Amino acid sequence: MGKHSLLYREVYYECRNPDACAHVFVVELTAIRTTKASRFPTPLHKLPMTNWRNAANDRADNDDDKPSDPDVGIRPG
């Protein structure tokens, strides 16, 4: 196993087909912020708290308007 601490880990992954590929790589897992406080807080795990926000555009798609003309603003050249 790779390096690790309370808030950081290195995990080794390898291809599921080692005979054909043999690719092995390392992934970093890092805790960066808290979105919901623990019911059992540990003073060793102190992360910044973040506020939950709704998406800036929570519509399913963004294509209700007529498409813009792709040639607008382009000068022949």
From TrEMBL:
Region annotated Disordered, chain positions: 52-77
Highest taxon, organism lineage: Bacteria
Basic and acidic residues: bias regions: 56-69
Name of the molecule in the record: Zinc finger Ogr/Delta-type domain-containing protein
Native organism: Novosphingobium guangzhouense
